[in-house]
Structure formats: C-alpha cells, structure tokens
Write a structure and sequence with these properties.
There is one protein chain. It is built from 12 helices and 23 strands. The strands form 6 sheets. A 9-stranded mixed sheet has the order 6-5-7-8-9-10-11-18-17, sandwiched between helices. The chain has helices at about 20-30, 45-50, 65-70, 105-115, 135-145, 160-170, 175-190, 210-220, 240-245, 285-290, 335-340, 375-385; strands at about 10-15, 35-40, 60, 95, 125, 150, 170-175, 200-205, 225-230, 235-240, 250-255, 260, 270, 280, 290-295, 295-300, 305-310, 315-320, 325, 330, 345-355, 360-370, 390-395. It has 2 domains: about 5-315, ANL, N-terminal domain (Rossmann fold, 3-Layer(aba) Sandwich); about 325-410, 2-Layer Sandwich (GMP Synthetase, Chain A, domain 3). β12 (about 260) and β13 (about 270) form a beta hairpin. By secondary structure, it is an alpha/beta fold. Helix content is about 30%, strand content about 25%. It is globular, with a radius of gyration of 21 Å.
C-alpha cells in the first residue's frame, strides 16, 4: 500500500534504524490516526513474519526513503499510542493496541505525560535507547510535542553520550541501569562532565543496583532523578530518588490518575483512566485475563507480584513468569537479587532456576563482582530464608541482557 493511501486505524510496521525522520514519522502517523508498530530492524525474516502476521500491517517500512514519505512534519495531538509488542523473551510477542482515541482522551494522554514529567519548549531530550522501545519513544515524543528538541547520538556508547552531554546540554534523558553503570565506569576514567543542565533523569526497565542508584543521586542535580515502574502495556508508578533513599527498594506510589491494589497472592493491579486502556491485538483471551472491573473502575495486571506499604509505596517481588518453586516454596528471583545486590562485592546479579531431582528447581545466582561464593553464602544466610538462598554461584564478566536492560534468564539456566 502506498503511504498516501493509509487511513485511520491502519497499522504501519517500522523496521528501520532510529533517526530524527523516524520520530517525525511516528508523530505524523499518530496525528493522522495511523498506528506505527516500532520494531527492531535487526529482526530476522522469520522473526518478522512471526510477529507481523497476526498484526496485519498495511505497510511495512524497511528503508529510509519510504520512511521519509511518512515524516510529513504534522505534530498534531496523537490519536493513539504506538503499538509496541510485549518483549517476548519466550513465545510470540503480542501487540499492545489502544485503538483510536477520541479528542478528549487524546488530549488527556499528552497532558498526563506533560504534567508528570514537566515537558516544555526549553527541553533537550538525550536519547540513549533505540526509539523502537516504548519508554525512550514516549520521552522523545513528549519533548517534541511540548516544543522541545531531541538529540540522537546513535547506538549507545559512553564516550559519545558524554560528548553529547557536553555539547548539547540536555535537560532530560531516559536510561536503563546498564547505561548508568557504563557511564559511571567511563567517567571514572575521564572525569564526570558538567551535569547541571539536567532537570530529569528517569530510569526503568530493570532493577537498579543499590550503589548505582546512590551514585546517580550523588552526581546529578538534586531532585532530578526518578525511577518508574511500568511495562509495554502501561505505567504504574513514579518515584523520586529521594523517596527511594527513604524507602530503599520501593518503585514509588501510583502515578496521578491511577490506583494500585495487590491481591492476597501478591498480584499487582492498576486502575487506569480511559486513555490508558489497551488490549492484546487479536488475542481476546489474553486481554480478558489482563483486565477486571471492580469498584466501578477498570484494572489491569501484567502478572507482576509485590506489596504495598501503609503509605501506598509499592515494592516488587518479581514476575509470576520468573517464579521458582524450590522444595515446594515460591521463590521470586528479584527478592533474592535485591538482597545479594546489597553486598559491596556484587556489581550485578541475576537469580534463576535449574531443574533439580531433589528440590524441583535449584536456586542459582549469576554474579558480576569480586565477592566469592563463601562470602555470598554467608550474606544470604543472614538475610534470606533457606529456600531462597542460592545453592550455586556462577561468575560472569557481564549478564546477558536485552537492549532494554532486562536479564535474559533463558540464557543462564
């Protein structure tokens, strides 16, 4: 289908490298009510077919010339959310579909992001992650829609990012903990650049090691650093780092306009406004399992587990899909990782399970750092119940992660 023939509700798959034209194309499509499907251009042909066949896009863009025809410069209010696909480290990713929004909901979607993150025409957003991921695209779109500008230094490199900070004086950036770790290591060698231009540094995507978090707060301007908890499907919380310092481990309280609840089994639910509703495209059963109607409101879950304190701060225990059952006891890797990650000799850690004839699953830990197994075993014994203590420690130079910072547990077992 020629780009000029696209109609409201059509879907366009974008399989090209992120660029300024890419961002303009996304904004132009959404202003017309056409929904972009941002995807990693490095996907193999079989992967592309597997993901796109159920999504039935009207156009698949694989070259910059076609992309340029979509970048019309129209920055009107987006009529939908981009259709991102769930990360799918196992199984086939599903498209998260918001449908077309009416004028009121479209305006509310933009206003919610602007009010929370303070986007304005003076903003300069430094993009560290590929724009085909939901969070960096959301921050870049919010910046441009408020009249600010976006800096795209290309594939993440600590030196290039540092040079961009010096030259462009950015006011905001979204990052994952891996970005921070690599930047801090680079700055140990070359010195810390002037960071005073930043008013917002937000991180998410993976648990942030305690020492990395503390250094983030130490280096960047007071009040500028945030963590948020969300997913491809929707956003749950936002948390200033100062709140985290007072309540280590929290991912914050519900974002404005949302309400959190936790079931007896620990499943986290979030009530959202109409513009934040979604479905899994072409998967009504999966959609139905994600939603419930209670107290006159619509609530969704992505299967994460956690707990709320008496002030409404949320603490994550992990994802149901990551759950290990060792000796009949439920073990959430995230809980164990948070404990081990507090050891001064641990730089990074991932907990996973392997089949075990006696325990069903044996709790194992992959560690980056200098702490030896005996030290970690003693640390765990003082802080974790016996079923949660790793029985095997494996040492790596770095953990296998996706581009958004999530640990590839499937590569550890």
């Amino acid at each position: 289908m020629p780009p000029t023939s696209l109609a409201e509700g059509d879907r366009v798959a974008l399989l090209v490298a992120p660029s300024a034209a890419y961002l303009e194309a996304v904004l132009s499509l959404l202003a017309r009510g056409v929904v972009p499907i941002p995807l990693d251009p490095r996907l193999t042909e079989p992967e592309r077919r597997r993901i796109l066949e159920p999504l039935a896009p009207s156009l698949v863009v694989t070259d910059d010339d076609t992309l340029a025809t979509l970048a019309t410069g129209d920055r009107g209010t987006p009529r939908a959310r981009p259709m991102h696909c769930t990360s799918g480290t196992t199984g086939t990713p599903k498209g998260v579909w918001s449908g077309l929004l009416d004028d009121a909901d479209a305006a509310a979607l933009v206003a919610e992001e602007r009010d929370l993150w303070g986007f304005c025409d003076r903003d300069v957003n430094l993009v560290l992650s590929p724009l085909y991921h939901s969070a960096p695209l959301r921050f870049a779109m919010g910046t441009v829609l408020a009249g600010g500008r976006v800096v795209l230094p290309g594939t993440f490199d600590p030196a290039a990012t540092t040079a961009a900070i010096v030259a462009e004086r950015p006011t905001s950036m979204f990052c994952v903990p891996t970005h921070l770790q690599r930047l801090f290591t680079h700055w140990d060698d070359v010195g810390v650049p002037d960071l005073s231009s930043f008013r917002l540094v937000a991180h998410a995507g993976a648990p942030c090691p305690t020492e990395v978090k503390r250094r983030l707060v130490e280096l960047f301007p007071d009040g500028s650093t945030w963590e948020f908890y969300g997913s491809t499907e929707g956003q749950f919380t936002a948390c200033r780092s100062e709140e985290w310092l007072a309540r280590p481990g929290t991912v914050g309280r519900a974002r404005p306009g949302r309400t959190l609840a936790v079931d007896d089994d620990g499943t986290i639910w979030c009530a959202v406004p109409p513009h934040a509703r979604f479905e899994y495209f072409g998967a009504p059963g999966k959609t139905a399992a994600a939603w419930r109607h209670r107290d006159g409101r619509d609530w969704f879950t992505v299967g994460d587990h956690g707990r709320l304190d008496h002030d409404g701060y949320l603490y994550l225990d992990g994802r149901r899909e990551d759950l290990l059952i060792s000796g009949g006891v439920n073990v959430y890797p995230l809980e164990v990782e948070q404990v081990l990650g507090e050891h001064p000799g641990v730089v990074d850690v991932a907990v996973y399970g392997v089949d075990d004839p006696d325990w069903g699953q044996r709790v194992c830990a992959a560690v980056v750092g200098t702490a030896n197994a005996a030290e970690l075993d003693a640390w765990a014994r003082a802080r974790l119940a016996p079923p949660k203590r790793p029985k095997t420690y494996r040492y790596l130079d770095e953990l296998p992660r996706t581009l958004t910072g999530k640990v590839r547990r499937d590569e550890l077992g």
